[in-house]
Write a structure and sequence with these properties.
With 281 residues, the protein is mainly beta. The protein has two helices and 21 strands. The two termini are 23 Å apart. Bound molecules: 6-O-phosphono-beta-D-tagatofuranose. The site of 6-O-phosphono-beta-D-tagatofuranose has 10 residues, from strand 19.
C-alpha cells in the first residue's frame, strides 16, 4: 500500500493517522500536536501511552511525545512544561510520497497565550514517518518585535518491555544534573544506564546518539538543535502518585527526551528548530 494520511478520532480527539511504507504507521493528535503512536514495519508499538491517559485537554495526555514549550518542566512561572501541550493545533501540511508520510501542525500566540507569556510566536511540529524511522521537528518563530527566550522539549515516552531490564547507552562522559538530588552537576561515568529507582536527569550537550535496548529491540535516538537529553522514569512510588498512570505504568516506559533546558534566545523575526529522530536498528 502506498503511504497515505487519514483523519481519525482517537479516544474522542481529532487526530491524523500516517500510513507509511512497509506497514509502518503513526498517530498525531491535534490536541498538543502530540505523537501518540508509532508502529514500525515489525508491528510493535514503540511509544508508551498510559491506559489512564486523559483526552479532554484538561491535563496533558500521559504518553507519546508531548511538546513542551515555551517552558521545560518548572524552570519558570508558566504551567509545568509550558502551555502548548494542552492546546489545539491545526494541520498546515499533509504529504505522502512513495517512502514517507509527513504531517506538520501549527499553533500561534493568541490573547490567551499573550496573557500569560507576552511574546508573539509561531510554532510548527512536523512528524515525518519513514519505514523504520520517525523524525519529529519543532520549529519556533519569533513573530514579535522584540527578542524572546524559551526552554522546550519533545518529551518522548518510549515503550519498553520491562524498564528494569532496559539499557540506555550513549550518555557516558556528559555533564548531568540529577533533578532528584541537591548534589550539583556531575559527570556521567556509566557507559550503560539501567533503571532501578526513580530517575530524573538532564544530560547537557549530548552530541552522540543514544541507544535503548529493551528485550530484542534496539532504538537509536539522535537530536539536532536540542542540546540536552532528559531521562525520566517515575518508578513505583512516584508512579502511584500520578492519577493518569496505572500502577505498573512505570515498568513499561522510559522517557528519553530531546530538550533545551537552558534558555534559547530568539531575536525578533528569527527562527529556531530542534529535532528528535528515532530509528529502529
Ligand atoms: O522531563 C521530566 C519531568 O520534568 C519530570 O520531572 C516529571 O515530572 C515529568 O517530566 C512529567 O511531567 P508531567 O507534568 O507530564 O507530569
Amino acid at each position: 500500500m502506498k503511504p497515505s494520511i487519514e483523519a481519525i478520532s482517537f479516544n474522542g480527539i481529532e487526530a491524523l493517522r500516517l500510513n507509511g511504507p512497509r506497514g509502518a504507521s503513526a498517530i498525531i493528535s491535534k490536541l498538543g500536536a502530540q505523537v501518540l503512536s508509532w508502529v514500525p514495519p515489525d508491528g510493535k508499538e514503540r511509544l508508551f501511552l498510559s491506559d489512564k491517559a486523559v483526552f479532554d485537554g484538561s491535563v496533558a495526555m500521559r504518553g507519546g511525545v508531548p511538546v513542551c514549550f515555551p517552558q521545560f518542566a518548572e524552570l519558570g512561572d508558566l504551567p509545568k512544561h509550558g502551555f502548548v501541550r494542552t492546546r489545539a493545533w491545526s494541520v498546515c501540511t499533509e504529504r505522502a510520497g512513495d517512502d514517507f508520510a509527513l504531517v506538520t501542525m501549527e499553533i500561534s500566540s493568541d490573547d490567551a497565550t499573550l496573557a500569560i507569556w507576552p511574546h508573539a510566536f509561531h510554532a510548527e511540529l512536523s512528524l515525518m514517518l519513514e519505514a523504520d524511522r520517525i523524525d519529529m521537528e519543532l520549529c519556533i518563530t519569533n513573530t514579535g518585535g522584540t527578542a524572546l527566550s524559551f526552554t522546550a522539549a519533545l518529551h518522548s515516552y518510549l515503550r519498553v518491555a520491562q524498564v528494569e531490564e532496559a539499557v540506555l547507552e550513549g550518555l557516558k562522559g556528559l555533564e548531568y544534573c540529577d533533578s532528584l538530588s541537591d548534589a550539583g552537576n556531575a559527570l556521567e561515568t556509566r557507559p550503560e544506564l539501567t533503571v532501578d529507582r526513580e530517575v530524573d536527569c538532564v544530560y547537557f550537550n549530548a552530541k552522540r546518539p543514544q541507544l535503548l535496548h529493551s528485550g530484542k529491540q534496539t532504538l537509536a535516538m539522535q537530536n539536532q538543535g536540542f542540546p540536552d537529553v532528559v531521562v525520566w522514569n517515575p518508578f513505583v512510588e512516584r508512579c502511584a502518585e500520578l492519577k493518569d498512570m496505572p500502577a505498573n505504568g512505570w515498568r513499561h516506559m522510559l522517557c528519553v527526551e530531546a530538550a533545551a533546558t537552558r534558555p534559547i534566545d530568539l531575536p525578533a523575526g528569527e527562527e529556531w528548530y530542534g529535532r528528535q529522530t528515532l530509528v529502529v536498528v
